[in-house]
Amino acid sequence: MKTEFSLEQLADPDIAEADKILRACVHCGFCTATCPTYVLLGDELDSPRGRIYLIKEMLEKDRPPTPEVVKHIDRCLSCLACMTTCPSGVNYMHLVDQARVRIEKEFRRPLIDRMLRAVLGRVLPDPKLFRASVWLARLGRPLAALLPEPKTPSATPSLVRRIKAMLALAPGKLPAPGPAGGSVFPAVGEQRGRVALLQGCAQQVLAPRINQAAINVLTRHGIEVVLVKDEQCCGALTHHLGDDRDALARARANIAVWRAEAERGGLDAILVTTSGCGTVIKDYGYLLREDPDFAGAAAQISTLAKDISEYLEGIELRSSTLQKGGQDGSFVVAYHAACSLQHGQKITQAPKELLSKSGFVVKDVPESHLCCGSAGTYNILQPDIATRLRDRKLANIATVKPDMIAAGNIGCMMQIAGGTSVPVVHTIELLDWATGGPRPGSN
Ligand code: SF4
Ligand code: SF4
């Protein structure tokens, strides 16, 4: 794609990067076929190619974002299916991230929108606030039934619709908190390695059992696990809301505490059980590339960050102790490929191979490239598109008749579980079960 940035504009490293990305696009349109919003809405401006044009116009002409641009960028899930499909290697992620930051800085959203986004950006990354808000949501849930239902699904939802979506997502009860930052879990038997395990923010409130399963599997296989003190949200939530000031502050704070831990006790990896977080931590090196104080350290941390399945691939897991549960002795797992894992981190085989080797019958879900609609705060901000995607995902999952559904991202797990009675678990919970831990859901 031909671009026309001035030399003055190109002196800005972000614009220079955008120019490089835009020039790689040959507007072939292959990406439209795998873009969930284009598949649902059929509007070119809700496709990657259409959004690329909108962003190009905005950046090149140095125009403030228009309501039209904001509408179509807001509808993007940042699922990155377009990056997997693109034959020219267009880095849509870095382009749309830049557009979101510009929108956040230069576009004045209606007051209600600003308030909702500010609440989400403040509450979700803070486990204490998030826990309190879930209790409040439980109280407010009966009121949700009194709020009017939209007559038809809308791609521009009202505040009432968003509040209903938020209340519907709040779980009925919360588990007790997991172990605190600063805890160390020694290896069982001879120590073969030492890792930090990201504690996460929403996940540690909603499902501390996930990291417990990871700790079980790792320590059982000779890996010492540390939960680093003073670690905070990775920044993914506010990054996707376009608030890079907050996201980068969190990245810097985490880099500082992880580096200190690596210097003190050594770290082979920083493991992540929430693939949405993993994708952003692996991008810290890029996000802080212009920061002279943090660029080098950020790049090192990005190299250390690994998804739990990626790390376990390099370890010979214990033979399976699985007592199979299906009628013919098999246990069918539908593997839901989280977008952040398959498109963001290009990890497609490791989780499935680990599950297969552990004795599960793993089934791919048809249309597995399409997002389930979770996408961070998307299922709150765009509930109608998100619900349509979830229902499509559930219909596809139903075709493989699973005993359980496995995923590597808490957001997808919550989204999918909201529409099915089939148990939805994290891949690591199944690996824990197969190597001597409890059956998921039994404790
Ligand atoms: S597939 Fe890639 S090159 Fe083709 S239009 Fe989409 S982003 Fe551009
Ligand atoms: S990130 Fe997903 S929703 Fe956004 S343009 Fe790409 S494929 Fe479409």
Structural class: alpha/beta
The unreliable regions are none
Mean pLDDT over the full residue set: 93
- Annotation field: number of helices: 24
Structure notes:
This protein is an alpha/beta fold. Helix content is 51%, strand content 7%. It contains 24 helices and nine strands. The strands form two sheets. Strands 1-3-2-4-5 form a five-stranded mixed β-sheet, sandwiched between helices. It has a four-stranded parallel β-sheet with strand order 7-6-8-9, sandwiched between helices. β8, α23 and β9 form a beta-alpha-beta unit. α9 (127-144) crosses α10. The protein is globular, with a radius of gyration of 22 Å. Bound molecules: iron/sulfur cluster (2 copies). Residues 25-31, 48-49, 82, 85-86, 88, 90 line the site of one iron/sulfur cluster.
Summarize the model shown.
With 443 residues, the protein is of the alpha/beta class. It has 24 helices and nine strands.
List the helices and strands and how they pair.
Blueprint: H1 7-10, H2 13-24, H3 36-41, H4 48-60, H5 67-74, H6 81-85, H7 92-106, H8 111-123, H9 127-144, H10 159-169, E1 184-185, E2 193-197, H11 202-206, H12 208-220, E3 223-226, H13 236-240, H14 244-265, E4 269-272, H15 275-281, H16 284-287, H17 295-304, E5 305-307, H18 308-312, E6 332-335, H19 339-344, H20 350-357, E7 361-364, H21 378-381, H22 383-398, E8 404-407, H23 410-417, E9 424-426, H24 427-434
Parallel strand pairs: 2-3, 2-4, 4-5, 6-7, 6-8, 8-9
Antiparallel strand pairs: 1-3
Helix pairs in contact: 2-7, 4-7, 9-10, 12-24
Bound molecules: iron/sulfur cluster (2 copies).
One iron/sulfur cluster binds at residues 35-37, 48, 51, 76-82, 92.
